[in-house]
Amino acid sequence: MRIRIRRNSEPFPYGVLVFCVFVSLMLLSAVLYFVTGGAGLCLFHKFTGVKCPGCGLSRAWVALLQGRILRALSLNPLMLIFSLLFTLHMVLPVLFRIQISYEISGREQRFILAIGLILLLLNWLYIVLPA
Amino acid sequence: MDSYQNNELFTPRSNVQPHRATLVMVMGVLGLVICGIFGIVAWVMGTSDLRKMREGSMDPSGMSTTNVGRILGMVSCAIWGLMIAYYLGMVTAFF
């Protein structure tokens, strides 16, 4: 696996539409969270009655913004790190014109996918199972 | 036969990256079934990979799967947006 960090000439390497959709969905989620008090935003939870792997992410983000890092990590550890990295990945090209790209072989890709799915499952069990 | 094999148009390029179609597809499906954030990831990865495939710097054999994963990501984003709009509508109607 090779990680490449390079300076980009354009601020939106994934397209303006993707960035606008990402920012607007994040802002709308935040508005909805503060208006409703964070109750019942997950469609998966609404239909199945089981929390999804992303449940608790809004609360984790709010806790992170309040500086309560341990509380944030305890709410949804894997998805918080994942979404934090993804947000940085989307924001860095716009603010500093820096783009991070990954070159992974087919074998590494399958390995990362398997490890990622196992971690996601463990994270899901951590969220679903009572403390 | 030799001239066919030696033709530079048909010789595989060594600097071409392998495609990430499976990863994009899995992200798209996870976005649709479980959580919308995976959908945005599928959309971002799909868009950048399709561009690389068109430029010739990535193996184009996974183009259709990558495209399907990207579309699944777009659909999950649309569902996420509709859900937020529905909840916001409910909240504003309540007040």
Structural write-up:
- The complex is a heterodimer of chains A (131) and B (95).
- Chain A is mainly alpha-helical and 131 residues long.
- Chain A contains six helices and two strands; from the N terminus they run βαααααβα.
- Chain A has helices at residues 16-36, 43-48, 57-65, 69-75, 77-96, 106-128, and strands at 2-7, 98-103.
- Chain A is globular.
- Chain B has 95 residues and is an all-alpha fold.
- Helix content of chain B is 74%, strand content 0%.
- In chain B, helix 2 runs parallel beside helix 4 (63-94).
- Chain B is elongated.
- The chains are: A mainly alpha (131), B mainly alpha (95).
List the SSEs and their pairings.
The complex is a heterodimer of chains A (131) and B (95).
Chain A: E1 2-7, H1 16-36, H2 43-48, H3 57-65, H4 69-75, H5 77-96, E2 98-103, H6 106-128
Antiparallel strand pairs in A: 1-2
Chain B: H1 2-6, H2 21-33, H3 36-55, H4 63-94
Helix pairs in contact in B: 2-3, 2-4, 3-4
- The count of domains of chain B is 1
Give the total of beta strands of chain B: 0
Structure class of chain B: mainly alpha
In terms of per-residue confidence, which ranges of chain A show pLDDT below 50 for 5 or more consecutive residues? none
What is the largest interface, and how many residues per chain?
A-B, 38 and 28 residues
Mean of residue pLDDT values of chain A = 84
Structural class of chain A: mainly alpha
The general outline of chain A is: globular
* Total beta-strand segments of chain A: 2
SS strand fraction of chain B: under 5%
Q: Based on Cα principal axes, name the global outline of chain B.
A: elongated
Relative strand content of chain A: 5-15%
Give the number of helices of chain A: 6
Measure the end-to-end span of chain A.
37 Å
**Major β-sheet profile of chain B:** none
What is the typical, i.e. mean, pLDDT of chain B? 81
Strands in their spatial order, largest beta sheet of chain A: 1-2
